[in-house]
Amino acid sequence: MREQQGPERQAPARQVRVVLADDHPVYRDGLALLLGSIPGVEVSGTAADGAQAVALAGELQPDVVVMDVRMPGLDGIEATRRIVADSPHIGVVVLTMSEDDATLFAAMRAGARGYLLKGAGQAEIVRAITAVAHGEAIFGPAVARRVADFFAGPASDETVFPQLTPREREILALVAAGRSNQQIASALFLSPKTVRNNVSNIFAKLHVADRAEAIVRAREAGFGR
């Protein structure tokens, strides 16, 4: 007689593996304890500075590194740049007290896919980690508006390159800011193919031969400040 089988169990969802980098032990340990209590999140290691973060990211290959900016020795911006260069699949979420535009955009240029201010709530931090682990880019509410305003500027004025569509002007602003097609796709939640097609249309409409010439034309018009 065949033994009756119980209900089929679903395989548990894969843990999102996280490395935390912060030079303040109380904050770092508290965040590790908090995240470790969240189902679906595993804190794989902690680092007290940027050099340790780079080493741990290379050794542990986590899904996400949560990175402070101001740390002794190697700072969070350079650490982010090295981690992304060595392991592009690792997402970096910057979690910092720094609200200034220079730090925000330096982190984006270094390859960070998330940017939150310290003081963000548990739900916001977990949402950012989860989103970045799945290849998305995410910014906290406190900085998202500044990102939008930064790239809007002259690009919202339809008298500048009127032959471009609003979406093409938005993409041109990001091109002028030095973002790659992949970074633009992540920032605007578009497919890389859609971005490539838009960039080709921009080149044709501006009568430029390549990306470098498009950047020069765009910056002369005030894009990509």
UniProtKB/TrEMBL annotation:
GO terms for biological process: phosphorelay signal transduction system; regulation of DNA-templated transcription. CDD domains: LuxR_C_like, REC_NarL-like. The keyword Transcription applies. The keyword Phosphoprotein applies. PANTHER family: TRANSCRIPTIONAL REGULATORY PROTEIN NARL-RELATED, TWO-COMPONENT RESPONSE REGULATOR. It comes from the Bacteria. Keywords: DNA-binding, Phosphoprotein, Transcription, Transcription regulation. Residues 157-222 form the HTH luxR-type domain. Signal peptide: none annotated. It comes from Nonomuraea pusilla. This is Two component transcriptional regulator, LuxR family. Pfam families: GerE, Response_reg.
